[in-house]
């Protein structure tokens, strides 16, 4: 469908963003969408508000708000834009029946996710939080009789076995960075379809023997519960497991217990239920220096979010041009 009518140099469509808080408050969305006739942004949207807010909308932008069959039937949407890569919040079959294109955005966060993965890895290997806190205490470094303090061991990455779980674009980026640190890099293909001549492909059992395991795969039938109690029991002492794929791949209850019972380290940017539940087992971990959790921010560098918005604008323009 073409929508080429101009309105004061813009394009005559109404665009509604349902959950702008997921894109951050430090970026002005109007600067990206002001060329279109009308743009309305809501910080958050409850399910009961969705239909009303989309009543006169031509195009919706959503990150996590559900666009269900009911929403599609009771609105006049002409394009659904997902401000993310995953489209599991959209009823794709209903959209197809209604002839409404669904456009997501891929590839915008590769560098951001890879960087956050290594920020967390280095923080754990070098115990950055502990040493920073020690230096800022009145009874810390300023009260030390010697120049150094070595209560928490730090370790090099060079020479360590590093296995990437899921060698997509982000996985490849992580693998190459690990290689630059001097790690011995391998990968496990969760689909069995990935082939890469640069890095050694290993079985899942071999992957579990690695010093560092970094997850960068989607959540699907092959990966849900992949790191269950049995798999996690095979991690070597001193191993670091990182999840920068999706929650549900790692059994969070079991890994929380392992962090306290063995010298196992865990870093994750994703949880099975987000935001974190108030009674989550991670909140009761005693060996907190072995655990590093971030609130699903790996994708969200300023640069990545700007790329995301520019690609959404492109998707809208391409649709309007037909």
Automatic annotation (TrEMBL):
Keywords of this entry: NAD, Oxidoreductase
InterPro entries to which the protein is assigned, alphabetical: D-iso_2-hydroxyacid_DH_PdxB, D-isomer_2_OHA_DH_cat_dom, D-isomer_DH_CS, D-isomer_DH_NAD-bd, NAD(P)-bd_dom_sf
Q: Which residues form the D-isomer specific 2-hydroxyacid dehydrogenase catalytic domain?
A: 33-322
Pfam families according to UniProt: 2-Hacid_dh, 2-Hacid_dh_C
Q: What is the top EC class of this enzyme, as a single word?
A: oxidoreductase
D-isomer specific 2-hydroxyacid dehydrogenase NAD-binding domain: from which residue to which, for each copy?
A: 119-298
EC code(s) of this entry: 1.-.-.-, 1.1.1.272
Please list the GO terms describing molecular function.
Answer: (2R)-2-hydroxyacid dehydrogenase (NADP+) activity; NAD binding
Q: Which PROSITE patterns match?
A: D_2_HYDROXYACID_DH_3
Please indicate if the UniProt record lists Oxidoreductase as a keyword.
yes
Q: Which family does it belong to?
A: Belongs to the D-isomer specific 2-hydroxyacid dehydrogenase family.
The name of this protein is 2-hydroxyacid dehydrogenase
Organism whose genome encodes this protein: Campylobacter hyointestinalis subsp. hyointestinalis
């Amino acid at each position: 469908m073409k929508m080429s009518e101009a309105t004061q140099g813009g394009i005559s469509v109404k665009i509604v963003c349902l959950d702008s808080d997921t894109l951050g408050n430090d970026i002005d969305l109007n600067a990206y969408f002001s060329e279109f006739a009308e743009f309305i942004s809501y910080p958050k949207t409850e399910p009961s508000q969705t239909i009303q807010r989309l009543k006169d909308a031509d195009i919706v932008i959503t990150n996590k708000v559900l666009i269900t069959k009911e929403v599609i039937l009771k609105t006049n949407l002409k394009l659904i834009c997902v401000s993310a890569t995953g489209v599991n919040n959209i009823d794709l079959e209903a959209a197809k029946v209604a002839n409404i294109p669904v456009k997501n955005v891929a590839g915008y966060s590769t560098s951001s996710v890879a960087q956050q993965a290594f920020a967390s890895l280095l923080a754990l290997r070098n115990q950055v939080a502990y040493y920073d806190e020690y230096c800022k205490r009145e009874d810390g470094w300023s009260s030390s009789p010697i120049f150094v303090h070595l209560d928490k061991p730090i370790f090099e990455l060079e020479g360590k076995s590093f296995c990437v779980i899921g060698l997509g674009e982000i996985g490849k980026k992580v693998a190459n960075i690990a290689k630059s640190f001097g790690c011995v890099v391998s990968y496990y293909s969760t689909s069995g379809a990935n082939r890469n001549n640069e890095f050694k492909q290993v079985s899942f059992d071999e992957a579990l023997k690695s010093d560092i395991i970094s997850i960068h795969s989607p959540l699907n039938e092959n990966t849900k519960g992949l790191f269950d109690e049995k798999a996690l029991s095979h991690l070597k002492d001193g191993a670091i497991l990182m999840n920068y794929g999706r929650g549900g791949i790692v059994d969070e209850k079991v890994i929380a217990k392992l962090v306290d019972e063995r010298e196992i380290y865990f870093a994750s940017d994703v949880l099975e239920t987000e935001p974190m539940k108030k009674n989550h087992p991670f909140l009761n971990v005693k060996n907190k220096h072995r655990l590093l959790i971030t609130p699903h921010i790996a994708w969200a560098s300023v640069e990545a979010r700007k790329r995301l918005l520019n690609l959404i604008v492109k998707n809208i323009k391409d649709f309007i041009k037909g």
